[in-house]
Amino acid sequence: MSPHFRLMTEADIPAGMRLKELAGWNQTPSDWERFLRASPAGCFVAELDGRVCGTATTIVYEGRFAWIGMVLVDPERRGRGIGTRLLAKAIEHLDAVGVSTLKLDATPQGRPIYAKLGFVSEYEVERWTLERQPGLAGAGGSAAPRERAAAGLAEPSASLPFASQPDVEEIVEFDRDVFGADRGGLLKSLDDDTPSFTLEARDRGKLQGYALGRRGSRADHLGPWIARDESSARGLLVEFLRRSKGEAIFVDCVKPNRFACGLAQSLGFEFSRPLTRMYRGPNRHPGRPELVCGILGPEFG
Question: Reduced to 3 DSSP states, what percent helix, strand and coil does the chain have, rounded to the nearest 5?
Fold first, then answer.
């Protein structure tokens, strides 16, 4: 029997969660809702025997470029070309709506598949993971230094005060330049869900950096994490670790940034896996990856 391909709906979110659990990924129902709100005509599922066995999502950013993510296939249904056909469905949709540049973050296994479809490498991304002892996550200054170091907790930064109400509109404006397109809707949804993770670093009133985050099913995820300089980047990371209650934290650092990976490693993160940012078509809006310490996530860009 051949699979049936159709648009994804909110009723398919439990099926999407089942597939991402099988893959060991970190998304929540809120993340699936973000995809469907941003691109109701650009998210797809494959069905076999009346059951969803694959997914693919797309998001168009300001008409400048689109992101492809969440290409998942049930392990029992792999080897039948379902993932490739879902990817083709996503590309067909994006071509039809006139988006000339497509982007994604590829695993080492997916990279050759995407290359055959015309995607080329832009730069490398690395996932770093911090595992913390139960009971010490988000302990702030209450744990002794040795206990905090063992738990991967950083000492609070005395040099960077953090506003109780960050200027989200200014963050969105800054982010448009850094990311390469407006994604204010996504950033505001992160701030709405977890406002305690929204941080900004300023020097004499000027925005030097910002960070947002979300709670995942396996770990808190830091991203985007953006900074003009290493001091601001470190302050944002330290404060995020202080505020996070997760026993695990993920951050996806970009290699063009000269200090992100080193900062993560210095605060107890360990390298987890590589990814490759790839694009198809003209890359007219690359943003400023040298300022990106951590991306929003491989599924969002």
Answer: 35, 30, 35
